[in-house]
Amino acid sequence: MKDAFGAPQSLLVLGGTSEIGLATARRLIACRTRTVWLAGRPSPALESAAAELRGRGAYVRTVDFDALDTESHETTLGKIFTEGDIDMVLLAFGIPGDQERDEEEPLSAVRVAQTNYTGAVSAGLVCAGALQAQGHGSLVVLSSVAGERARRADFIYGSSKAGLDAFAQGLGDALHGTGVHVMVVRPGLVRSAGPDRSGAAAGTDTRGGADTRGGAAAGAPLATVPFTRAPLVTTPDAVAAAIVTGLRRRSETVWVPGALRAVMSALRHVPRPLFRRLPV
């Protein structure tokens, strides 16, 4: 159960080496979270992440989880909830794909869609059902500003995030009044401190690079990604801070940085002929 200050005492991160996921875990541990589950494919990175969080005073366990192996989700994730209540689930896995390659290789595009949408729908429903059964908890879903409007540069990735965003909103409505809180987080460009590892946690591809979009490795030059000028560029720690604040406020939607709400509200209404020419 959450403590008297509203902080979750137990956390499950789906995408256990995601920089945003780990930054959120660090902040929550500092706020009295004591049990952390990191779900991802077995790897040195996953074990290193677990060791670091243990050094911060948390009881940390890892679990083998693959976003693409949807048939295993109910059993794998169900076992975690049999160990005790989970106060917060953070769905932090995803891949950006490679737009040019994905257009030429449909199976590659399908993998992006299956990871970012199908895998997330499966894991999200399993966790939502478990949270509802225990009568409390929060499900936090990392979406992306890329899902707000399709761009020529990354419409395959963006469409998968658009689907995830709509799913999470609908799930939140379905669970309203049950004691389960669903929060959608929409980061813009997230500049990481080092090589991004978010994909490895969910059994997905890892691509090196200094930038991340919505928690998935982008590996693209900064100039090719939208909203690159400060203050619209953010960091994993800033996203984590926004998540913690959103939990305390029981927000349903969180934009990071907050200015993106106004930016996307405007861009959503730009006529398509003009939008095609915008450098976004």
From TrEMBL:
Keywords (A to Z) from UniProt: Oxidoreductase
Classification via PROSITE patterns: ADH_SHORT (PS00061)
Group of enzyme by EC: oxidoreductase
Stretch list, region Disordered: 194-215
The keyword Kinase appears for this protein: no
Claim: Oxidoreductase is one of the keywords in the record: yes
SUPFAM superfamilies recorded: NAD(P)-binding Rossmann-fold domains
Signal peptide: none
E.C. number(s) listed in UniProt: 1.1.1.333
GO-annotated molecular function: oxidoreductase activity
Stretches with biased composition (Low complexity): 199-215
Highest taxon in the source lineage: Bacteria
Pfam families referenced in this protein's UniProt entry, alphabetically: adh_short
InterPro entries: NAD(P)-bd_dom_sf, Sc_DH/Rdtase_CS, SDR_fam
Family in the record: Belongs to the short-chain dehydrogenases/reductases (SDR) family.
PANTHER family per UniProt: 5-KETO-D-GLUCONATE 5-REDUCTASE, DECAPRENYLPHOSPHORYL-2-KETO-BETA-D-ERYTHRO-PENTOSE REDUCTASE
NCBIfam families per record: PRK07904.1 (NF005912)
Identification of the protein by name: Decaprenylphospho-beta-D-erythro-pentofuranosid-2-ulose 2-reductase
